[in-house]
Specification:
It comes from Nymphaea colorata (pocket water lily). This is S-locus receptor kinase C-terminal domain-containing protein. The structure is a single chain. This protein is an all-alpha fold and 61 residues long. The protein has one domain. Helix content is 57%, strand content 0%. It contains four helices and no strands. The longest helix is centred in the middle third of the chain and has 17 residues. The protein is flat. The chain starts with a helix and ends with a helix.
């Protein structure tokens, strides 16, 4: 999964039915994937805190 993400092929994780959704929906899905990858970093010190995750999920930019 990480190799696909690092090759900027994150859209391959998205269900093909959902891939055809509006661009904003696809961007939201990719943002959630990105946040998920941040949360599973091997080094716990590099993972975001839950309060940071909440802020990231609530931020529209």
């Amino acid at each position: 999964a990480w190799s696909l993400w690092s090759e900027e092929k994150g859209t391959e994780f998205i269900d093909p039915v959902l891939k055809d959704a509006a661009t904003s929906t696809s961007n939201q899905m990719l943002r959630c994937l990105h946040i998920g990858f941040l949360c599973i970093q091997e080094d716990p010190a590099t993972r975001p805190t839950m309060s940071t995750v909440v802020l990231m999920l609530g931020n529209d930019s």
